[in-house]
TrEMBL record:
Protein name as it appears in the record: Heme ABC transporter ATP-binding protein
PANTHER family documented for this protein: CARBOHYDRATE TRANSPORT ATP-BINDING PROTEIN MG119-RELATED (PTHR43790), GUANOSINE IMPORT ATP-BINDING PROTEIN NUPO (PTHR43790:SF4)
Native species: Kibdelosporangium phytohabitans
Ranges for domain ABC transporter: 1-224, 222-440
Keywords: ATP-binding, Nucleotide-binding
Length: 441
């Protein structure tokens, strides 16, 4: 199958254009062509009506096309201003003119109503503000076309709203914003036009106002998706995890709700040692340069059938990987480097590996971040089946809808403490949201 099969994409100046599709539908390939990361076998790319062909991102940026990728390319030890001007520094007498750098970056921040400061050290910034630094880099280079790949995947709801305000303002200036996302409600909230891809082809296109979440989901997957499903409750048994303020029982999903940065990661780091699906799939959940088979062997590599006579058996590792790939619908082969998979397929692979361990307790962080609606439905069903098989699950998610759909009990974390607990029957979104913001119930 072709990654992009005769794809037509027309994007106008002054619009936010959403591009969506399942993991592996061809979105990333299409954006990579536009940004100069790869070249098409056939077809043309035109910018302002003139044919162009980029051999590198540097050429694309020179022509006014910039991209904010999921993995930010920033220097954490440098300031905001130093990151923004890097490679195109204003100079004075052959040296970096720091005052000029701060001045021009400060002017960009004020013009676009951003929330960072030129002297802030990037390593000290939350992820939402780091994303603003990436946008500043493109604005400094006078990009007229801005591509954002899954820009809200790591943002809180408040940060997402601020980002949407920035994107609308950029479009109002006459810039073109290409917004790649899986989140149906966000796409409809911010976009002027929507293009949907499925299996390398365009399956739907039109004004955002003509779509609904359900019609978008159908165009993406080719089938009806139940977007509002709340799974039936489990049957809790004996505790599989006991902490002073936290207990998880066999046959139960306990959801941890909270705005990012309120201690969820610290809690997970204190618990894990059992099977674990981490929040950072690229940094801690997998090895990008190793093969899919190598990654899926982790945790199974000290026993048979993968190990015999103290040596790993490559054929058994590949067989083991193929079984997980097939069971969890991972769009990959066992010999591919893990880093070449789309973010959603990496997530499915890691989740499949951990579910296959069959541990009494599964700790899972952000299980559907960057995953399309069809895969979300599948992942949710897998987690519920794991619970119903008698396992306990501690679910940490920034998606309140996910917490509500899956959890038998919900705990809220605020400023490092568990501040509220809700049964499934009492799980009201407004009350949970109030607790997440530190309000008194």
């Amino acid at each position: 199958m072709l990654a992009n099969d005769h794809v037509d994409l027309d994007v106008g100046a002054g619009e936010v254009h959403a591009l969506m599709g399942e993991n592996g539908a061809g979105k990333s390939t299409l954006m990579s062509i536009l940004y100069g990361l790869c070249r098409p076998d056939s077809g043309t790319v035109a910018l302002g009506g003139e044919p162009v062909g980029f051999d590198s991102p540097a050429q694309a940026i020179e022509a006014g096309v910039g991209m904010v990728q999921q993995e930010f390319a920033l220097f954490p030890q440098l300031t905001v201003a130093e990151n923004v001007v890097f490679g195109r520094e204003p100079t004075r007498a052959g040296l970096l003119d720091r005052r000029a750098a701060v001045r021009v970056v400060d002017e960009l921040i004020a013009r676009h109503d951003l929330r960072v400061r030129p002297g802030d050290r990037v390593g000290d910034l939350p992820v939402g503000l780091r994303q603003q630094v990436e946008i500043l880099k493109l604005l400094y280079r006078s990009a007229d076309v801005l591509i954002l790949d899954e820009p809200t995947a790591v943002l809180t709801p408040a940060e997402t709203e601020r980002l949407f305000g920035v994107l609308r303002a950029l479009a109002d200036e006459g810039r073109t914003v290409l917004f790649v996302s899986h989140k149906l409600h966000e796409i409809l909230a911010v976009s002027d036009q929507v293009t949907v891809m499925r299996d390398g082809k365009v399956s739907a296109h039109g004004p955002a106002a003509e779509f609904t979440p359900h019609s978008l989901a159908s165009a993406m997957t080719g089938r009806e998706i139940d977007l509002d499903r709340v799974h039936p409750p489990g049957t809790p048994g004996e505790p599989v995890l006991e902490l002073p303020e936290l207990t998880v029982r066999a046959g139960e999903i306990v959801g941890i709700a909270g705005v990012a940065g309120n201690g969820q990661n610290v809690l997970v780091s204190r618990i894990t040692g059992a099977a674990h699906v981490p929040e950072e799939r690229g940094e801690t959940g997998s090895a990008a340069s190793a093969s899919v088979a190598d990654n899926l062997a982790v945790g199974f590599h000290r026993r048979g059938p993968l190990l015999r006579g103290g040596l790993l058996r490559p054929s058994e590792m590949r067989k083991h990987a193929r079984a997980i790939i097939e069971r969890f619908d991972v769009r990959a082969t066992e010999r591919q480097p893990m880093g070449t998979l789309s973010g959603g397929n990496q997530q499915k692979a890691i989740l499949g590996r951990e579910l296959t361990h069959d541990s009494p307790l599964l700790v899972v962080e952000q299980p559907t971040r960057g995953v399309d609606v069809g895969a979300i439905e599948n992942i949710h069903a897998r987690l519920v089946a794991y619970r119903d098989a008698g396992h306990g699950i501690l679910l940490v998610s920034s998606e309140l809808s996910e917490i509500l759909a899956l959890s038998d009990r919900i705990l809220v974390m605020y400023e490092g403490r568990i501040t509220a607990e809700f049964s499934r029957a009492d799980a009201d979104p407004d009350r949970i949201g109030l607790a997440m913001a530190g309000g008194v119930l």
